[in-house]
Amino acid sequence: MPYKLFIVTLVLHYTAAEYFKIKPDFVKTCFKSDPEFDDCSKQAVQQLFNALGPGLPEIGMVPLDPLKIPKIRILQGDGPVNVNAALDDVLVSGFGNTEVLLSQVDGKSYSFYTKVRVPKIRIEGTYDLKGKILLIPLVGRGLCWFEPTNMTIDIVSDVKLYDKDGFVFFNVTGAHVKYTIGGLKLRMNNLFDGISSLEDSTNAYLNANWRPVSESLRPILSKTIEDILLGFLQQLFHNLPANFMIGDIKNNIKKSDKKV
Questions:
Q1: Can you give the pLDDT at residue 141?
Q2: pTM confidence score
Q3: What are phi and psi of 35, to 5 degrees?
Q4: Most Cβ neighbours (<10 Å): which of 4, 70, 123, 128?
Q5: Where is the chain membrane-spanning (predicted)?
């Protein structure tokens, strides 16, 4: 059954900063003309993830690990999940241990295909929830955490090129995610106004049935991951010339593709 309504509002804070005019040490340059481009690109993207972990204040980028998200708002109707929920003061940790498994760049569109593995992600914050998961009515407000483990994420990033000040830049217009996980643990405190017997039994049931729980939460988790990635990719590549990443990219840009 299709979802009648699905909205995720994600708020991230970035600060404005001037883009890199000199290639930073954490950037590895690869060439599309090189037969070993994919291997080089994999190493280059791994270096980017390693640099993003503590943040890049030079271009106003907040740390990726831990990542602080002030607010996440979720509204979804029909299907196995029907929730009106909010997460505040969210802290996401684990992305600093990202292992890049594959990195490919389309030779014509320059869209990215990236495959990564994250051993464990922990999402914690304050929730406010009213709805149902797996037909179980849930209501409560309090502290919560979720821990997906052995997560493999396939990322397709839509990209357009533009020219600015003699540099070529990537304009990332979209991020599409598919993922698998090896396990999921979670805890929501103060369910049902703190009635401990209902709270404990519900949490135990959700953990014991983590596979269907994970599947029912997949649209929400996918959209949240996509929004986080899109924000980071846009901020990064609007401030990091594409020439620094792909040394022969300028030969492929049209003169009409300029951003004022």
A1: 93
A2: 0.86
A3: -60, -25
A4: 123
A5: none
**Strand, coil or helix: what is 182?**
coil
Structure confidence by residue, pLDDT tens digits, 1-16: 444 556 667 777 777 6
Which superfamily does 27-244 belong to?
TULIP domain (3.15.10.30)
A 10 A CB-CB count for 32 gives 17
- Strands in 121-238 per DSSP E: 122-133, 136-164, 167-180, 183-188
- How high is the pLDDT of residue 20? 92
Beta bridge partners of 239: none
Q: Which two tokens stand for residue 228?
A: 């986080």
* C-alpha dist (Å) from residue 214 to 113, 132, 143, 181: 24, 14, 20, 9
pLDDT at 111: 94
Closest CA to 41 of 96, 113, 144, 149: 113
Answer whether 199's CB lies under 8 Å from 191's CB: yes
AA identity, residue 192? F
Q: For residue 260, what pLDDT is reported?
A: 40
pLDDT tens per residue, range 14-56: 776 678 999 999 999 999 999 999 999 999 999 999 999 999 9
Structure tokens, 194: 């703190």
